Batch of 3 targets.
Target 1
Amino acid sequence: MHDNSQPNIGEHIASYIDRLASDGCRKLTGIAIGVLWDGHEVSALRGWADSESRRPVTKSTVFEVGSLSKLFTSLLLASAVQRQECELDAPVQDAFGDEVTLPSDGAASITYRSLANHRSSLPRLPGDLLATADMENPYAHYTREMLYECLNGMTHIRSIGSRAEYSNFGVGLLGHALGKLAGTDYHQAVRQRVLEPLGMSNTTTRSDHQHGPELATAYRSLNKPCPHWDFTEAVVAAGGVRSSLEDMFKFLRAHLDPTTSPLAAEILMMQEPSDLPASKRSHSRWLGWALPIGYILILAVFVTCLSGWEWVTAFGSNSLLNFTLILVPTLLGTIWIGRVAGGMTLAAVTLLSWWVWGIEPMAMGPYLLWAVIAISLFTHWQPHILTDYQRGQGRLAWQNWSMRNHLLLWHNGMVGGSASYLGIVPELQIGVVVMANTARSVDGIGDKIVAELIKLKNQKVK
């Protein structure tokens, strides 16, 4: 039964998110938070859309939503499937004909599903993008011709479907292919098939559509402005959407209650789990671990031959104990989570070693070098446990997580001067969106709100 002594839930939610928004503005120039709770909208608006003119954030303030764009792209994919323009597991190559040749693993082709759920084996970014980019606006120059040239030069990729690897490259390609299937480009296709049906009139993918005074100024950090990012047709599907809290409430509502949306079938398709079987050419588990372990053993034997058995039994920076302390955790972090985790682990164990043994560069140098080589060699060796857990159920664009024993579907985004978060718990009819015009993650704010809403739901049904 409901406890009548419990404060009004709507007032509690409003107070809670307003407090988080206020705290967030210590490091964010402006922030907009929206909550859907049992169909009711609750919002918190703090800070400045433009700090110089003191223009406040409102519900109609337009933010760059970054990688939340991938949700719009997957909804466009679901629309193409519903229109029978393609199938989820059909080769994307069919959309391009002879214009470009997509890479293959020799046994399977890149499919629409594999692009949407990050299992295409395409890298995070095209190989030629950063080398030619202005890092103040890194996607503005990347043309369709450059995309095709890059794809034509990729003769072989890792086993398609073998694991999840986040890819802006892949989603950009997906959006471009969907535009071609629609007989137009991505901008027009997503506007006609996603934005207009959902009534999102204040949302666009065109950077030349400046929204007049509604567009929030972008900030690299608190009150330090920077350029907005521009996206070409080749990459816009991965991060080019701009929207307001007013419109994102419509997007949230459609995903929490698809039956009331004109895109009901498409939204339900996005939320349906799927799985791509690993290629038969993937490393078997024993081989996947045998080679990294062999790398460590060969190095240990090599040092033993140079230093003698004293090295094995010694204590200090030049010992088997310190060798193991540095290389083994670094290797485990690299294989199971990724390059960044491996580097952070190496930094942590190096500091620990220096604290225990003292700084001895001559003794530590080879160990650090071998650890860096291990990070380089084995970053992509095994499926990363974190990304597999988040994306292992294979939904289109959505990442998934268990929070308080409930399924949370979520995504986040960040570009040079903004950050965003969107999460839904369909079972409990909970939705949260957070947008800020500063390049600082708002994931923590979003997760805190979702956790609080789930707690309130659990209290409500007791």
Target 2
Amino acid sequence: MVVAYIAIGILAILLILILLRLGLMRKKIQELRSKTDFASAEEEPMMVTFEGGADLENVATNFNRVVKMVLDRSGERSELMRDSKEKNRLDAKVREFETSMSSLTVLTDIGRRITASLNIEEIISILYDYVQSTMFVDGLELLYFKNEETVYLSYSPQNGLTHHNAGESHHLMEWSLRNKKDVYLDDAKRDYGQYVDHPIKTLSGMEPGSVICIPMMMHEKEIGAIAVLTSNTSAYNAYHKEFIRTLASYVAVAIDNSNVYQILEQNKDVIEREKAKSEDLLLNILPAEVADELKEKGKATARNYDNVTVLFTDFVNFTGISESLTPAELVEEIDYCFRAFDEIIGRHGLEKIKTIGDAYLAVAGLPMPQDNHAARAIQAAVEIREFMAHHSKKAEAKIKQIRIGLSSGPVVAGVVGNKKFAFDIWGDTVNTAARMEQQSEPGKINVTGFTQELIKDQFKLTYRGKIQAKNKGEIDMYFVEG
């Protein structure tokens, strides 16, 4: 027993020495850390062994177990502390990310709603609702350009949307736009001298405490400026400034879209009138169906028409008449007659092809086929003859007589060239109609035998016999009497 007590005493002394050594080592480690600024590994646990009886071995075993438990607990506590700090850091990052995503969602929603509107009043109302849900705001003020006019607006819950004239100009927004710089006033009464040389003037008349003013630009184009106001001082921070800057970019797009849309609306009637003029001009040159094909495809395909009636007219003694008139008088006389011809053939569904000097060429049966093309052409010819008979009785009439010839059969029709488009017809039927006009007489309508077959049941005709036609030989010809 004595030996055991002695061993225990020695063990106690040894434990004290070990603890002292541990304390010295920890102090040394701290000194090294402070000098080298890097982390040092924890010291290895110190274990003891005793040789002797079972009692000494049990004492050593228990001592070693206690030392290990102390060190293990110390390690666990350090690990728990490290885990707790890492968890807090990760939680903070998650909260920051969630806040950012929420802000991004809000901004995206605002941007979509603002840029979708073309109504400035609606845009300002939407903007105010979002701004006041995020930050202190007692009013919004807006300057923007509409055509050549500068528009000033203010919005507050008390007064709603108010329009202001140029005399109530907002010098802070004007400064911001003119210098293309943001304005941020934490205390407007104290800090206004950074931007302007007199106290802040607002459209609504309120005395602001804090102000954020952002110029609105699009590709170097000045759109306007927007100001957010509150009576509180120190109400805004860097986040609010970035928030308003983003909203200002959305408002700039919406205002620009609204201006463009209004210009288009204002010019819509002008555009429609000009378009109608262009359409009418094109239809004066080409048949409607050909004009549509030309607009759609860039060209018009030539077509064969098997059954048409071609009408030719020519004024009698035109050369002699033209020599007795001034150019202006001659053109005026021809224009008067041809305008009447245009009206007559239009009523009967004929297509005017062209005029060649004093000759007038038209056709029935194209571009849309007409079963009664011959009758339509003859009726138009009769009315042209009647017009000239009436016109010739006027004292001021210079042109008094006309010859008319018609021929029925196939033709080819189309547009040739790519400049100064002209719709024309070709074929033997056209040449024969010209010969019919040449072989006609003043005040008469001369037609071929084929045309006579098509209209004999509707009109009275007189057979003239076979008459020689240039480059055509003898042709059966008939006068239309009525």
Target 3
Amino acid sequence: MTVFIINDVNKLGTIHVGSSNPVRIMGIINTSPESFYKKSIASGLRLAAVAKQMEEQGADFIDVGGMSTAPYLSTMVSEKTELKRVTDAIKIIQKVSNLPISVDTCSAIVAKGALKEGVEILNDISGLKYDKVMLDVVSRYQPSLVLCAHSKKPVKGNNITKTRELLRQSLDLAKAAGISRKNIVLDPAIGFFRRSGTGPFFTKINSDWVERDLLILQNLRLLKSGQPLLVSVSNKSFIGKLLKKEDPSHLDIREGLTFDDVLLVPKYSNITSRSQTSLATKLSRNISLNIPLVSANMDTVTESTMAVVMAREGGIGIIHRFLTIKEEVNEILKTKRSGSVMIEKPYVIGPDQTVNEAIEYMQEKGVSGLLVANGESKLACRNTDITRCTVCRLVSSCKRCYDKGRDNCKTRNQSW
């Protein structure tokens, strides 16, 4: 999958991207057997099933490629072969899905053939720089564009600055072809900047490619140039480097599920003891969980109460984003406080405060108990079970204070 990072409002085909629109997802279908990621390769009946599944699972676009452009593989095929693969796939997808289709190609011949079949989006990883005839095709058919950062010449210097310059060059080419910037999305080309490669579609750099990709991902906002960004990171080899998996096709990336309800169907199991099982997993390299459950940060799902419950069960809660910074900090402090073995600054009430005041204070601070202390911050008693006079409502924390309170009761003539 490819993920859109939303910035300014634009359209790809009929779909609005950017601004307050939701993050958009692009499903990738490769029809090239030479592609490094074999699970992405589809044709015939399987292609139709994959396209339907992508639409059902929430994809907003389907991107079709007929030739692998991986910079470390020798995968060039003829334009005739690429065109047949792409047009066959487009016809199959159009029969089973109404999603806008994007064609991933740097060839003007392939682009023209796809656009004639009704494709709305051209995804050119060369940023319109590989095929000189491409501008004529774009000018005639006026598709929406995804433009990648690309240079035929070696690039030196600051990777962010150079990537931004290359993207602006492609924007100028699109403008010359009459394409409105409202129909353009930019791609910083994760995985395509290398010291060396075997194909014509990578940009040569003199720095480490993994460091370059991570730097770009950390500074996406500096690259937008007023356009939304498309970031293609699924199964890219930099993930393999981070996970120390050299072969990107063998990445053991576990599936994450979101759901409304889960139905557990009882079945026979060879497991005879709980000690034989473990639900432990990792949320990230440094965050371990005892159970693979996370409460989302969407809407108002997770605040301190939910986060505390999730943590105590072995999972984790991510505080939602619809709070001010001060409110977020307060929720986090409440969550951390609940897990402290020793509370350095406990919440305290005085012995003369009423139960109602204590209850209000506990609700305000999100706690279930308070210490009772005098003006010198000394505990009034050790037993914190709250008792009180049924008439004057004075707080007494233990039987000794309760009995003493009889003499001090404001309505001592009344029964206790």
